[in-house]
Write a structure and sequence with these properties.
Length: about 160
Amino acid sequence: MKLLFKQRFFSWLDSYDVYHEDGTVAYTVKGQLSWGHCLRIFDPAGNYVGTVKERVFAWLPKFELYLGEKYAGMVCKKWSWFRPKYLFECNDWSVEGDFFEWDYTIVSASRGTVAVIGKELLNWTDTYSLDIKDPADALLVLMFTLAIDAEKCSRN
């Protein structure tokens, strides 16, 4: 399953559209005014499906994940020298990025590669392609992509 994640060009708060390969909308993401990033995710029908919320007072960046209103876990950045590394506290996934922080691979200890995320260059806004092995993992992979994009935005 492939998704294309694009930040909206004109938006006061973080807003994104996520598309299937055929161009249909898979998800819409709307930022909320809050301390740190708070991104609410909606399905094509406009139903709320999840939230990515930055934990503001943390040594290294941490993002809480909510599936609906239920807390699902956290994405935490790990200390590393040259390549960014993240850990999911809700499952056995780990993530490693490349030196430029454009490409990421999500790996499960039990299932192998879960997804490959690549930043597409030469676009007006942040654009990522998400190549997801199992469609059931699409929402969590999207949540991770939102978290890394928010983390890079906060750092810059």
